[in-house]
Amino acid sequence: AASESLRPIVETAAAAAEAAALAAIESAAAAASAAAAAAAAVAHQAEEALLKVSAEAAQASKNASASASEAVKISNLAAESLRNFQGKA
């Protein structure tokens, strides 16, 4: 009889423990999902930063190439001017 009177208490405690375990699992899953989302956001930001740096490096390389090309043109003009000057002298 005493065990029969404890049965509802035990069943209630078991149900509460089950609910607590499910809540803990759901909470852990939500935390893992949030961590994955945060990692994805960081990876995306890193990718964007890398793309930006890569684009800037490409532009710097393009600028350097244009400057070198311009220097060659100026050098060729100077050499031609010098030849013209020497030819007149």
In words, what does this structure look like?
- This protein is mainly alpha-helical and 89 residues long.
- Helix content is 98%, strand content 0%.
- The protein has 1 helix and no strands.
- The chain starts with a helix and ends with a helix.
Q: Which percent bin holds the helix content?
A: over 70%
Uncertain segments are none
* Strand percent estimate: under 5%
Quaternary structure of the protein: single chain
Number of strands: 0
On the 0-100 scale, what is the average pLDDT?
88
> Any idea what the shape is?
rod-shaped
Report the biggest beta sheet as strand number plus sense, adding barrel if it closes.
none
Total number of helical segments?
Answer: 1
N- to C-terminal distance: 131 Å
Give short descriptive properties of this protein.
1 helix, mainly alpha, 89 residues
Topology summary:
Layout: H1 2-88
Short recap of the structure:
The protein is mainly α. The chain has one helix and no strands. The chain is 98% helix and 0% strand.
